[in-house]
Amino acid sequence: MRCHSRPQKKGANKKERLELPVTIDAMAYKRFHQKDTAFCQAISEAFPEGRQALELLGSSSADLGQRVMDKAISDAGWYMDSLIAGGAPTTSPDIVAEVRNNEVSSSPYDFSSAEEASLYIKKTARFLGADLVGITPYDERWTYASFYNPQKGTSLPPDLPFTPKSVIVMAFEVNFGAIVGKGYSQMAITGASLRRFITNIGYRAFAAVNDVALSVPYGIAAGLGEVARNGLLVTYEYGPRVRIGKVFTELDLACDKPMSFGVRHFCETCMRCADACPGNAISTEKKPSFDVHNECNNPGVAKWAIDAKKCLLAWGKAKSDCATCITSCPLQQNRFLVPSFERQGQPPHDRTAPRHDAENGQAFRVRQLLRQKSRDQLLEIITEP
Ligand code: SF4
Ligand code: SF4
């Protein structure tokens, strides 16, 4: 059973897959330690230049053309995430423990089937704010090998309150200007609320934002999209303009299948995000490979590995959470050519801001090539080998 929040679009080469549409070398793959994310490395001072970059994120970027209004909107977007989830992407599982530990009803609701349970869960997730919902079996490979508490600077064993059976994976749309904080806030609210719903009907569950487990593999496994050159989950509906939240539960749920619609093939020739990346952090190799840059990449998965350290340093220079790899991607939606603030009736964005310099300057060549094509037309010309 498939039950995404929006009707399936016609004309795309969507294919259900029995396996993840990603090559994994089971001998080389190792579970990833949360402390090895670039953010945790920077916070822990294992990556001092990254620490300086993080400090610059909070500083004024008026010298780079960012207006007070831009900063205020971005900060407001993060607000609920900072209250509920302790501030992703460095959230620690024990920080949100209080949200997770509400009581489980002693009278479990008796679903007639796993399909019925999935239908209820998906409808409720959408009601609570998820834009896309998929379900996949729990897969220990994606759980961090150890958790990390950035406040205490300590690693923790990857102990879960129970072994989950199913993972509800939710995607939250972010706007065309990719002010991602609002996506994090929404997924913190929806995740905690969906967890509450599941415990109210008598089953254990816990919610996660960027903590507990890798989100992109779960997004792929739950059929929400494919991983792209920019290292992000590209969904059919919103391209890379999503954040991904997860709710783990002991409920037996009917699961979705991975799906592909040619993103990898398209990325092999597009390279727009790599052209636009101000940190040179995105690979320009034609094909995915098993090459990694440093401890911030886990080995054993064929992909275009992002150099997360270079990325974070670029954030420091821009004094903002860049996101050019989202705003430059042609798979966003039909209106991808129109600057986001203008589209939303907000004041025109200052063109000297780094994100927009990159989008409008370096990627100009690709924009010229693509400007006559809508996103749906682009998807229709994608053909898998
Ligand atoms: S966020 Fe910016 S610097 Fe980082 S990979 Fe994306 S485009 Fe490059
Ligand atoms: S910009 Fe192009 S290469 Fe980069 S993720 Fe999007 S489609 Fe792939």
Write the layout of secondary structure elements.
Blueprint: E1 15-16, H1 38-43, H2 48-57, H3 68-84, H4 97-100, H5 114-127, E2 132-137, E3 147-149, E4 154-156, E5 166-173, H6 181-200, E6 205-208, H7 215-221, E7 225-227, E8 233-235, E9 242-249, E10 259-260, H8 263-270, H9 272-276, H10 308-318, H11 324-327, H12 340-343, H13 354-362, H14 364-370, H15 375-381
Antiparallel strand pairs: 1-10, 2-5, 3-4, 5-9, 6-9, 7-8
How many separate helices?
Answer: 15
SSE topology string: EHHHHHEEEEHEHEEEEHHHHHHHH
Radius of gyration: 20 Å
Cα separation of the termini? 27 Å
Shape: globular
Q: What fraction of the residues are assigned to beta strands by DSSP?
A: 5-15%
Structural class: alpha+beta
How is the biggest beta sheet arranged? 4 strands, antiparallel
Helix content: 25-40%
Question: In which order are the strands of the major sheet placed?
Answer: 2-5-9-6
| Overall mean confidence score, pLDDT | 81
Name the bound molecules: iron/sulfur cluster
In the residues, how many domains can be counted? Answer: 2
